[in-house]
Design goal:
265 residues, 4 helices, 8-stranded mixed beta sheet, 16% helix, 2,3-Dihydroxybiphenyl 1,2-Dioxygenase, domain 1
């Protein structure tokens, strides 16, 4: 990763779980991440690292007052999109029909964040960097390589994200990817979008992180051994070989051995 992420680019992911240490152990064993429960002043937030560089956050699910949520929120990875001005983006979000789940807040000197829901129901974070630009390593084994919006209305989603961030959408040029769209910042593809109709009935709109791995089948087997589950078994497609997995607490993610990994952002 060279310098700050351009506005509109996925720049960070994190996971909120009931058992933080179990999640740290799962991803350590699966991807080689290093991380430990953080200090009280950060709510125990863990910044996991790979080769000494930040790759993802893991935190314990809790209310602002420190109590355990009841009911527990869905276990899901949150994708964060870079923005140069969180507050201005939040105004654009509500103007464009989205809603604010968590208003803008400073995270010490690291940056400023918010969490929103787009008009199709998918949750996504916003990150205005301070001293922390986001993921420091991407497109390598165990690191983030792609973020994908799965939604029931791709046209509405495309219009929304283009209204609130400097992104455009265009049909994918990959063979066999009819109907798949890409988010672009300038001429660079920074994420994908597909219709929920391609997924099992009942799956809600969501952003899905993809991790690059050297051996999809091996990772799939390791995830199962560690108590995870397979949502879509390893298969070959135009971009490479991939699988969709869930960790031992239900957090869903994809792994891919990309035929032509994207260059670092």
């Amino acid at each position: 990763m060279n310098g700050p992420y351009q506005a509109g680019t996925p720049c960070w992911i994190d996971l909120m779980v009931p058992d933080q240490q179990a999640a740290l152990d799962f991803y350590r064993d699966l991807f080689g991440w290093q991380g430990e429960v953080g200090p009280p002043e950060t709510g125990g937030y863990s910044v996991c690292t790979l080769k000494g560089k930040p790759v993802a956050g893991i935190m314990k699910a809790m209310n602002p007052d420190g109590t355990v949520p009841d009911p527990m929120p869905p276990i899901a990875w949150t994708t964060y999109l870079a923005t140069n001005d969180v507050d201005a983006t939040l105004k654009a979000v509500t103007d464009a029909g989205g809603s604010v789940m968590m208003g803008a807040m400073d995270v010490m000197d690291l940056g400023r964040m918010a969490v929103i829901t787009d008009p199709t129901g998918a949750v996504v974070g916003l990150w205005q960097y301070g001293t922390f630009p986001g993921a420091g390593i991407v497109n390598e084994h165990g690191a983030l390589i792609w973020n994908e919006l799965n939604t029931g209305d791709t046209d509405a989603a495309a219009a929304f994200y283009s209204a609130v961030l400097p992104v455009t959408t265009a049909p994918s040029q990959m063979p066999g990817a009819e109907g798949y769209k890409e988010f672009k910042v300038g001429e660079r593809a920074v994420g994908g979008m597909m219709d929920l109709s391609a997924l099992p009935a009942g799956v809600p709109p969501h952003w899905l992180p993809y991790f690059h791995v050297d051996d999809v089948d091996g990772i799939q087997a390791a995830a199962e051994r560690a108590g995870g589950s397979v949502m879509a078994p390893a298969f070959d497609m135009a971009a490479g070989r991939m699988a969709v997995l869930a960790d031992s607490q239900g957090g869903t993610f994809a792994v891919i051995t990309a035929t032509a990994p994207e260059q670092p952002a």
